[in-house]
Sequence to fold (295 residues):
Amino acid sequence: MSSSITQCPSCFTRFLVTAEQLAAHNGEVRCGRCDGVFNATEHLEKTESATPPIKIPAPRPETAPPQVEKPQIALMSDNEEPEHFVSLSINTAGLETLSHQIISTDEIDNNKAPAAAPAHKPPPKPKASTPKKPRKWPWAIGSLLLIVLIVAQGFYFLRVDIAAQLPGLKPALTSYCELLGCTIPLPEKTDLMSIESSDLAAVPMQPNVVTLSALLHNHATYTQAYPSLELSLTDTQDKVLVRRVFTPTEYLPSGDDSKLGLGANREINIQLHLDSGELRPVGYKLLLFFLKNHT
Fold:
């Protein structure tokens, strides 16, 4: 393909054109620098210049080009940067503004089409997080453990009453207390235990010895522990001369086991022989109570 050099008469910009381009439109072109229209054939140079002109890619052939009046080819100046060319599209509809794009020399030299710019992809939409449903089983387990703990505490603090009212559960309660290191003592209800009668009498022929007699009665419907007894000896002015506490092992008859307790609606007679010494008591007071010394 032969080519020639033409020069714009307005801005004196030099271009490289081919014979096909000149023949396609009777030699009329438009300058890519000053937009001036001129006949490239009339301004061809016969000698080569020291500055090489810029090549223009040949237009693509059209099967049936429309007939328009004086279409022009926009040419690129040879004063542009040497590593880029301007590819111009021919506007066959008249002298409207011509479009162009920058093409690298590597793509033109290798006969490759310009690479399309990568389309900008919108950022992916964040997926709506599905709210997690609260798990119910931890609450159920926690509630069950709390109920078990409350029941266990209830058995611990009410173990004496439960064992008294429900004797069939006492073996299970005993095993439960063995794990906790506790015991199940007999009930100790002071309001259900009373001294029905008592008497303090001197022993004949023994002026320093007195005999205390008392009748204990358990009014409960279950067995209770034996109470402790407090005896106070008084003088003629009802002042306490001496006070003494007697535990069940001290006032029970020999051979009786104090741990068995006093049965439901049962009574027991007590007799104590006491040496009063030189006190010479004329009165007494007798009270019962329970010692809280067990766990």
